[in-house]
Each structure stands twice: as structure tokens, then as C-alpha cells.
Amino acid sequence: QVQLVESGGGLVQAGGSLRLSCAASGRTFSGLAMGWFRQAPGKEREFVTAISRSGGNTYYADSVKGRFTISRDNAKNTVYLQMNSLKPEDTAVYYCAAALGYGLGYVPSLQYVYDYWGQGTQVTVSS
Fold this sequence. Notes:
It is built from no helices and 11 strands. By secondary structure, the chain is mainly beta.
């Protein structure tokens, strides 16, 4: 089992920044590909970004490319999501997810390949 705990959400004005963290426990962190997803009110959960086990490969949704950055610290068992130039449409519950059993460089973007999910953290961007 893997436990994922997100933190860092909150209320921010448009144009501002937030950094989300996701702490993992229960399994060797370097064995997990990690991703961030989000769900806005009335919408389906969508992919935001993901990072490979090694940290060498990343992938972003077009809607956040150039504004968000995913990173990981395998020594701290933590993945981060730095969000800059936030927009009201970024308002959502953000979820951290972990995928087990993939190669070092693989970056999964599909929800169904993720095995474990955090409880989510709310991000609200005011205009």
C-alpha cells in the first residue's frame, strides 16, 4: 500500500503562485511514477502533469504548460507541483497519484494506470 498526502492548497489571486506537495509513504518512492490531476466543480477529473520514476521525464497538459512545474525529491519521498501565473480556471481539487511497476523513464498520463490516490487539496484562484 502507498499513502499519499497532499498539502499546500489555498486561496490565491489570479497571477499568483502556489506550491503543492505530496508526501508518499508505504513503498520505495523511487519505484513510483507520480502524477497530478485536478477536478473542477461539475467537471471530470483531468490530467495536469506527471513525472517519471527517475525524475528525468515530465509531461504536461497543454492548459498548464509553461506555468506549472512538477518535480520530485526521492530522498524526501515527495513530489511537488509549482504553479505560477494562476488563472481562475485553475480552481479545482488537486490530486496526487502514484503508478507502480513502470520503467524509469515512463510518464503515465492516463488515470487508469495510477494505483494510488491522495485525498486532494483545494486550490481556489480568485479573479
